[in-house]
């Protein structure tokens, strides 16, 4: 039977986390410092579970392995993408992620190219997006000297902004920001600077200067340029495409009939409510839900007033 796969997430306590995942999306967060909601994930550090239909109770990792027909019979053995929501009640560390080659050699997993859709941002909120160093030598000298004000590039953000963060990009999400992140399925992060803060046990978190210098890109980050197309009751904003994923924003105000053009889709309802009809079956949609439309779903109809972030493999 063709059916969407609605997913139950895992959540992660973070030194910089807060309570907005509960306040904004109604999630039953486990702590008052919950920073990450791994909405669609088969990564071993947090596997999503199917909540409905024929595969209820399956972890996404098991489903990908045992039922390749749902994903277009992929060549990969690892589910390649991960969707999460982050609640930055404080600054995340200044960090960088490796590419596939470095991550496979040193960490035994995929690299991490990612992108951010800004769901909410307090007045004056900023991110760190890139650095000023013109060479690896200058980068090394500024890091070793702790000259962060000179090195780091700060960028103001607001709700609705989008940032493409390929591997090698120095970055940090700032205080008062909520982000929907689409990324490769990886959990490798190299911290460059952590604002000299201590964890609950009074310890500084580890930093990774050498790895960071090894993988850092020299030069200003090149953000994507979203392209918006409206037709009848559907507006599609093309956000980014690379070797790993393609990401869109869908806005529905009425009814949209759609057909599958990729092996499968990852969908996150970021606002509104409505319904999706698949194979004659009606499923309710509301803000905060995350689901997959598998390869077995050829077409669907979405109705209501809804905003979704949608991704698929490229």
From TrEMBL:
<dbReference type="InterPro" id="IPR001250">
    <property type="entry name" value="Man6P_Isoase-1"/>
</dbReference>
<dbReference type="InterPro" id="IPR049071">
    <property type="entry name" value="MPI_cupin_dom"/>
</dbReference>
<protein>
    <recommendedName>
        <fullName>Mannose-6-phosphate isomerase</fullName>
        <ecNumber>5.3.1.8</ecNumber>
    </recommendedName>
</protein>
<comment type="similarity">
    <text>Belongs to the mannose-6-phosphate isomerase type 1 family.</text>
</comment>
<dbReference type="InterPro" id="IPR014710">
    <property type="entry name" value="RmlC-like_jellyroll"/>
</dbReference>
<keyword id="KW-0862">Zinc</keyword>
<dbReference type="InterPro" id="IPR046457">
    <property type="entry name" value="PMI_typeI_cat"/>
</dbReference>
<keyword id="KW-0413">Isomerase</keyword>
<dbReference type="Pfam" id="PF21621">
    <property type="entry name" value="MPI_cupin_dom"/>
</dbReference>
<dbReference type="InterPro" id="IPR014628">
    <property type="entry name" value="Man6P_isomerase_Firm_short"/>
</dbReference>
<keyword id="KW-0479">Metal-binding</keyword>
<dbReference type="InterPro" id="IPR011051">
    <property type="entry name" value="RmlC_Cupin_sf"/>
</dbReference>
<feature type="domain" description="Mannose-6-phosphate isomerase cupin">
    <location>
        <begin position="237"/>
        <end position="313"/>
    </location>
</feature>
<dbReference type="GO" id="GO:0004476">
    <property type="term" value="F:mannose-6-phosphate isomerase activity"/>
</dbReference>
<dbReference type="Pfam" id="PF20511">
    <property type="entry name" value="PMI_typeI_cat"/>
</dbReference>
<dbReference type="InterPro" id="IPR051804">
    <property type="entry name" value="Carb_Metab_Reg_Kinase/Isom"/>
</dbReference>
<feature type="domain" description="Phosphomannose isomerase type I catalytic">
    <location>
        <begin position="6"/>
        <end position="117"/>
    </location>
</feature>
